[in-house]
Amino acid sequence: MLSPEAARQLEDVIPPFLPVQKNITSKFATHPAVHALHILPSMIWAGAIPLQLHEGIRKQHRTLHRLSGSLLMCAVVTMTCGYVLMETRGLLQGTGGPHESLTQLWALRVVIVWFAITAAAAASLAIRGKFKSHRVWVYRHIASGIWVAVQRLLVIVCGMVHFTGLVDFSIERNKVAGFEIVGIIAYAVCVGWGEVVVRRLRHAQRAETEDALTSKSD
Questions:
Q1: C-alpha distances in angstroms, 154 versus 126, 157, 176, 201?
Q2: For the chain, is the Cβ count within 10 Å smaller at the N or the C terminus?
Q3: Which CA distances in Å does 196 have to 136, 151, 190, 203?
Q4: What do you get for the CA distance between the two ends of the chain, in Å?
């Protein structure tokens, strides 16, 4: 964990043309519980994703697949608790005024609730042995959380707009607005693409079931 002084120095490293608040790192510096409950588990969550999605691991290394799934679900619980902690400590509000901050918080609450619901559905289906439906909800869950990483990538792309003169991201209010807009785009893209994947997966599952029934009848 960075000291407050080191975090403030890091603020100067963030390019001024990026739509990112200068205190995006320093505001967490004095909150070790946030690091422990949200930031560290998010790394575990992201690391478990390939082990969940890789078909070879899922079929040939079931113990590893299940272990990574258990770690992912534990990370979801702690990340959700970490979110609650960040909200109660006022670490999620922007600088656009009370109404804007309240709207932002409600949007984030919907996101975190759906994140938890999809995880609970995936875990429940796996426990009950309904693995086809379990895979569907795993994809939905990953889509509900991976948008954060996509948002960070889009922030870099969005920062290029600064040089066109259309938006001045050196202004703090523009940084906040840009960061939120990019977040909305990232969430919509990830959740939307997740549903496309789910639709294709269900189609493949139905085809597999029909082929199995045809083989039995023959």
A1: 34, 5, 14, 27
A2: C
A3: 11, 20, 10, 11
A4: 64
Q: Dihedral of the CA atoms 84, 143, 75, 73 (nearest 10)?
A: 120
Cβ-defined contacts of 63-72 (< 8 Å, 24+): 69/123, 69/126, 71/44, 72/44, 72/45, 72/48, 72/119
pLDDT of residue 161: 80
* CA 37 – CA 86 distance, rounded (Å): 10
137 CB neighbour count, 10 Å cutoff: 21
Query: Which helix or strand (DSSP H or E) is residue 128 part of?
Result: none
| Amino acid making up residue 135 | R
Whether residue 38 contacts residue 78, with contact meaning beta carbons closer than 8 Å, is answered with yes
Q: Check if the beta carbon of residue 162 is closer than 8 Å to that of residue 206.
A: no
Q: Would you place residue 160 in the very low, low, confident or very high pLDDT band (cuts 50, 70, 90)?
A: confident
The neighbour count for residue 143, using CB atoms within 10 Å, is: 24
Could you give the CA distance from residue 94 to residue 98 in angstroms, rounded to a whole number?
A: 9
At a CB cut-off of 8 Å and minimum separation 6, what does 149 contact? 46
